[in-house]
Amino acid sequence: MIFCVEDDNAIRDLMIYTLNASGFTAEGFSDGKSFFEALAVRTPQLIMLDIMLPGEDGLSILKRLRSHSLTADIPVIMATAKGTEYDKVIGLDLGADDYLTKPFGMMEMVSRVKAVLRRSARKGAVHNLSVGGLELSPSEHTVSVFGERVQLTLKEFELLRKFMTSPGLVFTREQLLSSIWGADFIGETRTVDVHIGTLRTKLGACGEYIETVRGVGYRMEAKV
Q1: How far apart are CA 11 and CA 141, in angstroms?
Q2: 46: buried, middle or exposed (CB in 10 Å: 19+, 13-18, 0-12)?
Q3: Is the CB of residue 166 less than 8 Å from the CB of residue 178?
Q4: Is the pTM of this model over 0.90?
Q5: Per-residue pLDDT reduced to its tens digit, 193-217
Q6: CA distance 189 to 177
Q7: Which DSSP string do the residues of 163-205 spell out, in sequence order?
């Protein structure tokens, strides 16, 4: 999935059409608000991000993405207006993986997307995780329970990945809250309990792998 954040409807529609026709799956957003709402549910392979947006601009959005552990490694290609060399430099300094200067050709866009994804795959190659009947693919962002695909939200996926990365290790609610929701998250540890509950339900028979350690927190143990 590729997210295209572009406020010009005609350009955004053409980007989405071209990416879909090139074998990708793309979804578009006209502003940062709708983009972050979608990002809370699913993680894209790559983000096409225009700098000039209504409300929060692209550079501010990029800064937020790179400052959070859950989105820091998502490849981002910035779209900049012709002649705005300063924006290109700032974007690259903030962690953009590449940039396109408007107006750009659709075939050039596809070429850049493929190149960035190739570099990202080489840089971020990771092994799949498995515990008992559970298998998690960090690169494909998928989870399977005894071979059957399970759909998780972003937070549920990151919780499960944390447990599967360190099976047997106990995490306090405070540690999970800080790691998954961010150190600046304002909320109660009850948030963790609610997400653990829905995660267990979605994992079915493997939900019991996530054990409650009374008075402490949670850990993952595969049942034999």
Answers
A1: 28
A2: buried
A3: no
A4: no
A5: 999 999 999 999 999 999 999 988 9
A6: 7
A7: HHHSTT--EEHHHHIIIII-TT----THHHHHHHHHHHHHHGG
